[in-house]
Amino acid sequence: MSLKDAKVTKEGIFLETLQKKVLIVPVRLTFTKPSPKSSRTPFFNNQTISKLFSANLSRYTIIFEKERKRSRRIIFLPYFSNSSLSQLSSNSKHFLNNFARLLKELDLELLPIEAMNFFQNLQKKFPKTITEISSGIFKIQGNEKSFYISTMQMPFTNTEEKKNLSFYIQDFFAMITYGRVIIDVKHSSSDKSNTPISQAAVRITLEAPSLAIIKQDLKRVLSLIKIFINKPLNQLKEPFLLLDQNLLQENYGKIILDQGWDFEVATCDELLKFIDLFQLVIPKKE
């Protein structure tokens, strides 16, 4: 699926292959109350959300974003897949209404992101040139402006790392100036049964207007990853890596859309602690 062939309507971004049609509906999560309670206990659990996602979505991406002193943001990109355009529209509305009802218990709401604006912001990142500045840091000359980028994918293999992910993202928000942590999850069926299989990728992207800022943020992130993984960086297995120029160019379309490219099967019953992760948009002093 190529973004260059995408069609944008008020409902979202449509992508099409020979086998299926895909609708991406960008939304963001925000709190509805001026002083939300982080200890709010909802009537549902993480498994409720996980089942809702696996039953309705072919893929979803949760993007935790920070840009200088702006409030932290969570952007949610649900992917709906069907052979019928009308069914895609119906499925997306049904899912978003059900998801919004669950989030209300956390004093959260879903706000739509205008699809055309979202898509045009992606287009601005299409590169005219990609120049490697130093190991893992690149200068992108886009259609309207230049910026610096560094991206890496983290291992996501065991229950302990999943449990600590919300704490890691909290620290990430506190330490960096510009950047995103991306959790990208795909659902598919096993060849031998109809049991859905979840595969997850966790990626970090630093994106800044100046070289000095991205160098500083990259140093902080690498130090934080050492603590999170509890291993020296040179002992980490693939797919953890800072992308070189070949890999960056090969995966740049996925990077623009905040997708992963090397997935690992999620073996635990609850893939992510959704409630903890969603509550990270609670304003905190940093």
The biggest sheet, with number of strands, parallel, antiparallel or mixed sense and barrel status, is: 14 strands, antiparallel
- Low-pLDDT runs of 5+ residues are none
Task: Note the total helix count.
Answer: 8
Shape field = globular
The percent range for helix content is 25-40%
CATH architecture: 3-Layer(aba) Sandwich
In whole angstroms, the N-to-C terminal distance is 39 Å
CATH fold call: Vanillyl-alcohol Oxidase, Chain A, domain 3
Task: Please write the CATH class name.
Answer: Alpha Beta
Rg (C-alpha, Å): 19 Å
The whole-number mean of residue pLDDT values reads 81
Strand elements, count:
14
Order of helices and strands: EEEEHEEHEHEEEHEEHEHHEH
Q: Given the helix and strand composition, which structural class is it? A: alpha+beta
What is the number of independent domains? 1
Percent range for β-strand residues: 25-35%
What does this structure look like?
The mean pLDDT is 81. This protein is an alpha+beta fold and 286 residues long. It contains 8 helices and 14 strands. The longest helix is centred in the N-terminal third of the chain and has 20 residues, at 85-104. A hairpin with a 2-residue loop joins β1 and β2 (12-16). The chain has helices at residues 46-56, 85-104, 115-123, 159-175, 211-229, 245-250, 252-256, 274-278; strands at residues 7-9, 12-16, 21-24, 27-31, 59-67, 73-82, 108-112, 129-134, 137-141, 146-154, 178-189, 196-208, 241-242, 264-265. The protein has a single domain (3-281), classed as Vanillyl-alcohol Oxidase, Chain A, domain 3. Strands 1, 2, 3, 4, 5, 6, 7, 8, 9, 10, 11, 12, 13 and 14 form a 14-stranded antiparallel beta sheet that branches.
